[in-house]
Amino acid sequence: MDTVQDDSYGDVSRETSDIPHPRLGDVSRETRAADIDEDLPLAQEAKRAVQVLNPGGGAQLPRPTRRRIMAVANQKGGVGKTTTTVNIAVSLALHGNRVLVIDLDPQGNASTGLGVDHHAGVPSIYESLIDNVPLHEVVARVEGIPNLVCAPATIDLAGAEIELVSVVARESRLKRAIEAYPEELDYVLIDCPPSLGLLTVNALVAAEEVMIPIQCEYYALEGLGQLIRNIDLVQAHLNPKIEVSTILLTMYDRRTRLADQVEQEVRSYFTDKVLQAVIPRNVRVSEAPSYGQSVMTYDPGSRGATSYFEAAQEIAQRGAKLGGGA
Questions:
Q1: How many Å apart are CA 116 and CA 105, to the nearest integer?
Q2: CA–CA gap between residue 307 and residue 293 (Å, rounded)
Q3: How far apart are CA 203 and CA 164, in angstroms?
Q4: pLDDT tens digit string along 261-320?
Q5: Within 13 Å, how many C-alpha atoms sit on residue 26's CB side?
Q6: Are 87 and 117 in contact (CB under 8 A)?
Q7: CB atoms within 10 A of CB 158
Q8: In the chain, which residue ranges form alpha helices assigned H by DSSP?
Q9: Ramachandran region of residue 295, left (φ > 0), alpha (ψ -120 to 50) or beta?
């Protein structure tokens, strides 16, 4: 039998020269190929999609020890309030939490993002605020997400600010509507309009927590002090339980130094209230509402969906540590 000289291992027969190199061990080609495939971008995206969608339907995120009512507020427009409300709500609902979204913005964007009808004539949150219609009579179930319901906003809500002026106990109309809701809930997320009028005041009186999405740009920090002062006023005179519990950084662009500076400033001021999860600029997040969906269902493997899921995880973990109470 012919032999060949190998400087490292001495005489090796031609018949055995196909044996895998010792440094590779006995791993088969199929196993090595599978390991490589798991690192491919498409495989990673598929794994993220499964995690976000939770097709098994099990309760993957812990439920809070008591119902959490959170107003998602920031008087500056375009910072991601509605996007945050919709995607956090869908994330929590997909993983075993019972969630009610209240669309308090007359534009009705949260209703659009959840695929809920909100044209003129549809029962909406307006009827609950002005005509005392029970909240459970105006909510609509979100298609494909069993644990999620939405109280939509119609154009009628645009006149509610004026109509509420002469109403008795005008600041607590929403609070009473939520308290009378007959079904058990883990989360109530209120999407506030980009203003500090009576609708936002109703949300702050009804809620115990405020979530503030902050865009990672300089202008987003302007006016934030006014929002905090208004929350303090509501706390002093109308709702002593209200507090800013959650800050979420949105539209983060890691390519810019400004985004990093804004993040550092926000984290230094609000400390542990700021979620570790940061929402990046992502085209899928912007596209999803045009299809009447959240990014969680539109493209669950995208970076935007993954980031919102991570934010929901943090919120749920904090909720599981809350003390008892009503």
A1: 14
A2: 17
A3: 14
A4: 889 989 998 999 999 999 999 999 999 999 999 999 999 989 999 999 999 999 999 988
A5: 0
A6: no
A7: 15
A8: 29-38, 41-53, 81-94, 109-113, 125-131, 160-164, 173-179, 198-206, 218-221, 224-237, 257-270, 283-287, 295-298, 303-320
A9: alpha
Do residues 48 and 300 lie in contact, with contact meaning Cβ atoms separated by under 8 Å? yes
C-alpha to C-alpha distance for 15 and 85, rounded to whole angstroms? 66
Note the pTM of the prediction, 2 decimals: 0.83
Closest Cα to residue 326, out of 219, 257, 241? Answer: 241
Query: Rounded to the nearest 10 degrees, what angle do helices 41-53 and 303-320 cross at?
Result: 40
- CA 266 from chain center: how many Å? 19
- Is residue 139 within 8 A of residue 108, CB to CB? The reply is no
Name, in order, each residue with C-beta under 8 angstroms of 98's C-beta and a sequence gap of 6 or more. 147, 183, 184, 185, 186, 187
Residues near 54 by Cβ (< 8 Å), separated by ≥ 6?
A: 60, 94, 95
Strands 68-72 vs 187-191: parallel, antiparallel or unpaired: parallel
Q: Are 306 and 284 in contact (CB under 8 A)?
A: no
